[in-house]
Amino acid sequence: MRILAALGLLLAGAVTGVATVALHELGWGLVLALAATGAAVAALPPGWWSRLAFVAGWDLVVGWLAFPRPEGDYLVSQDLPGYTVLGAALLLIVVGVATLPRPRREAS
User: Given pLDDT bands bounded at 50, 70 and 90, which one contains residue 90?
Assistant: First the structure.
């Protein structure tokens, strides 16, 4: 069941990442996309199967879309909105990893 939830959250993160890249050039679109992403990350419980799966899907798609296309154009521009999206990707992966639960120690 956890694997199914992780795959669903990975897909949800990827779809949210595509929406973020699609709307990041519009002022209201960037704010809305980052607010929705932040709300989703805050609402998900910390863990490998939940928050980190969503963040990984978001970061993988945004990272993939940030590379130049074969035609030579970019989907994530080199301006303030583009750097904001890339900064948010870095911040999200840090939050996703930093909020992982600590491993439990075995009683001696």
Answer: very high
Region 74-92 average pLDDT: 91
CA distance 36 to 64: 20
Q: CA angle 49-65-48, nearest 5°?
A: 10
Query: How far is residue 85 CA from its own chain's centroid?
Result: 10
**DSSP letter at 108?**
-
* Measured distance CA(52)–CA(99) in Å, rounded: 9
**Which tokens is 65 given?**
């879309």
Q: How far is CA 41 from CA 60, 62, 70, 105, in A?
A: 15, 16, 33, 27
Report yes or no: 10 and 49 within 8 Å, Cβ to Cβ.
no
What is the pLDDT of the chain when averaged over all its residues? 91
pTM for this prediction? 0.88
